[in-house]
Amino acid sequence: MAAKELSRFPDPHEYKVPKELAGWEEMYPSHYLFAKERAAWEKSQFWYQDKIHDPEPMPPLDLIFHEAWQISLSQYTTRVFCIPPAQGIAQRMVGCYMYICAIGPPPPEIIKEKAEYFGKRVFYVFEHYDELWEKWLKKFQALGREMAALKVPEELPKYVPEDQVLPAPRGYYASYELIEAFNTLVSMMFKGWQYHFEMLNLTYLAYLMFGDVTRKLFPGISESAIGKMVAGAYVSMFRPEEELCRLSRLAASSPKVGDIIKRDVPAEKKIEELKKTEDGKKWLAELEKIKNPWFYVSCGSGWFNYEGSWVNKLDIPFSYMKSYVERLGKGEKIERSVDEISKQRDAIVAEYRKLIKTPEDKKSFEDAYKTVRSIYRYAEDHLFWVEHWFHTIWWDKIRDIGKLFVKGGMLKNVDDIFMFNRFEVPEMIEELVIGWALGEGIPLRSGYYMEKAAKRQKILAAARKWAPIQALGVPPKEIAEPFTVMLWGVTTDKVNEWLKGAGVVPEKVSEIKGFASSSGVVEGTARVLKLMEEIVTLKEGEIMVCPCSNPAWAPVFTKIKAAVTDIGGLTSHAAIVCREYGLPAVTGTGFATSVIKTGDIIKVDGDRGIVTIVKRGR
Amino acid sequence: MNYTLDFAEVNKASLPMVGGKNASLGEMLRAGIRVPPGFAVTTDSYLSFITEVGIKDKVFRILTKANPDDVTSLDSVSAEVQKLINEALIPTNIEKAIREGYYSLCDKCGVERLPVAIRSSATAEDLPTASFAGQQDTYLWIEGTDEVIRSVQKCWASLFTPRAISYRIKNNFPHEKVLISVGVQKMVNSRAAGVMFTLNPVNGDPSKVVIEGSWGLGESVVSGTVTPDKFVVDKIVLEISERTISPKHIQCVYDPEKGEVVHADVSPEIQNNVCIDDNEIKELVKIAKCIEEHYGCPEDIEWAIDKDFAFPENIFIVQSRPETVWSQRRKGPIIGSKTAYELLKEQALKSIKIRF
Description:
- The complex is a heterodimer.
- Among the domains of chain A are: about 1-110 and about 465-490, no CATH class; about 235-335, no CATH class; about 505-615, Phosphohistidine domain (Glucose Oxidase, domain 1, 3-Layer(bba) Sandwich), CATH 3.50.30.
- In chain A, about 50% of the residues lie in helices and about 10% in strands.
- Chain A has helices at about 40-45, 65-80, 110-125, 130-150, 175-195, 200-215, 225-230, 235-255, 255-260, 265-275, 280-295, 315-330, 340-355, 360-405, 425-440, 445-465, 480-485, 490-500, 575-580, 590-595, and strands at about 45-50, 90-95, 95-100, 470-475, 480, 510-515, 515-520, 520-530, 545, 560-565, 585, 600-605, 610-615.
- Chain A has an 8-stranded mixed sheet with strand order 6-13-12-8-9-10-11-7. A 4-stranded antiparallel sheet of chain A has the order 2-3-1-4.
- In chain A, helix 5 packs antiparallel against helix 14.
- Chain B is an alpha+beta fold.
- Chain B is about 35% helix and about 25% strand.
- In chain B, the strands form 3 sheets. Chain B has a 6-stranded antiparallel sheet with strand order 9-8-7-6-12-13. A 5-stranded antiparallel sheet of chain B has the order 1-2-5-3-4.
- Chain B folds into 2 domains: about 5-185, 2-Layer Sandwich (Dna Ligase, domain 1), CATH 3.30.1490; about 190-330, D-amino Acid Aminotransferase, Chain A, domain 1, CATH 3.30.470.20.
- Chain B is globular and about 75 Å long.
- The chains are: A alpha+beta, B alpha+beta.
- Strand 5 of chain A pairs antiparallel with strand 14 (about 350-355) of chain B, so a sheet runs across the interface.
């Protein structure tokens, strides 16, 4: 194949997006575009599509999380913990898709300088991990609660309420409250994401270190075996599902409640029915108790406004509970045994340890293992608190502002607010409150905003149909950035895969490679799920093929035979859950969702990380 | 004096009597590993034979003439010695012991003229420090007393092939110190067979079992006549990380008409089929772990799957010996004693090279 001889990807400055996407550039802050003023640098870098956080075209306001992580992730590497040869990760938008770039190592003298800071700072964190984790969680929960308590005015009142004026004027009113609310939401999101990376870079570094140690001792050890030794079933990540199981058992214990839960009606109807009985009321009270935080789990990755969370898409957790109550009725067990999982993990580690010959190597292995185990919990726990709980609160608050735009006649739908980036929303707020302040009969440029929202929605729809190239620019000679290696799995093999894939016609591909994330080999019918909402179409015994999964998808794993994802390494959610359920998984394939179609018969080889399309569906 | 010993009577301590290979079979039986039944013709038999028929001194005298660097000299010395051994008449008491050993084996298996494998088992062979592997002969599908006895005699003679002579001289191994025992063992009627290592011979990874197998008898794999199917399996998580299915055109089978093992074509329908299924692979790994655990060192194991039995009773271990290459090479620590601090610092300074 000619593509094999390629040693670089298209020049990012020359790469063309489809004409249906015309106008996409104005959706994002201008510094997110490839620009002629820095062309020389941009052309010499390697930009790959961030399919982990951005598998779909980016709605403008949703970019805020990325804006926040670009700064935060990078600064921890370069200025805070100072990982010596690593630099930050830069972002660019191309036709509504995000491309990222792990910047090459700094000059040698900087590496040397950073090494000193690194030694001192990083070890403090490892040694004080437990107390730091507790402090982190407290701090983060406080921030989330503060955000939840933030008041977005429900309306711009015709006249401000009496109590804000008499006996003494408050001095600021709904106009300012609205301006401040949005600004605060933005600041808090940036702050939350500054917290987010507090220990994550180090966690990944520790994981890579442990992987390296085990590979030296056992040269052919698989990534999934390493994953099995490290990963655990941590509290927060799996708590939403545990709560579902608990509520399902509670429901099953009362025939009336169980019966209502099992009905084929929307969640809202079920709640109405439940309110009519004593047991039902009790059950609803239990649900209320755990809703915050455990139903603040995104139905997707937490990165997109349209995914929704359990708490505002109750049909999803209710449908899970329906199937749990049904399974309980058949005498099946629904919970996973966390104890059992930990025991299995310890047994696996003990067996590998036994194979190490010398006491010196044993000691190094032991030390490395203790270190990674002590800090790894953070990698899995923080995800729930930041991407799920915190984001859910934020989405709700932003929708409150969206409602005001709809009330003010500036937007048609509440969610249209997501069509404007975080620099544009303040302008809209200003126009809205100016209109309100100026008095009666002041025209707003409603048409301007509505048209813009409609146009952008069209562009995003066109972008969704487009499969942009995996990477742009010149592949690097080396990569030291822990996230790039660990999270995005960028390695020589991966880059070569991408290079090969550059000219591939999806229909002609019959084999896809990814990470062997969970062992086992099965064959079955593929179900491609690009969006969480499509989950309802999934049938028992199918093989799930999705961009990436997350904790809200957990109950799905009891139905499927195997999982294939576009993105995510061995510690991705799908990988962890599949290992626990003993289902084969191949993750980080890059383009499974564009190559495989629902109905295709595929073979998933989780031992070798290969997915074969055995037979195309109709 | 014990001229023969049933494998069941043999253990590690019997090595001077029965040689490494046979001792190891006895050990495995003791550890509950399924090996085909059989008995050892002891080194006492060999020693009594060369002593009683009066060829001993002559043999060692001839051997002093051998020049290890001269092929012609080696060939003529070897031929001379082997002729002496092969043509000597075995003393009746020894012959009787072998005959009785074979009869009772036939009895045990309920088969008259039971086909057996006859293998030499030298006392210096297969020790972790000296790989003499493959330097003595193996005779397969031997049936009937006379053939058994003749093959035992040939095994004794095979102690003096040109290669073995030269090897011992070059490694300063006195010929007099190497004794030979012979194993007589029921043939496995094998559907597929091969070898396995309790570490990956490619990189020394101790967490892997590497299995190679092909259709028919294991000889095709051992001798390298076919490219076998290859599986690399993790001992602990039991993942099959590598699975190479090769076209296996030829197999070694026993031809009863010719009375010997021949190369036969494999029928085209199964040439490209995998020769063992995943259950058999996992069972082999279980056995390999058990053998390694038993000996406390990496092992090189020959296995066979018998057509006449059902899984898992169909899996037999034909022999096992210590793995020599990596156990020699790998003595010291690989990483050394390092603290997590040092390891992390190393990791932090590392970068991944991307090659094209």
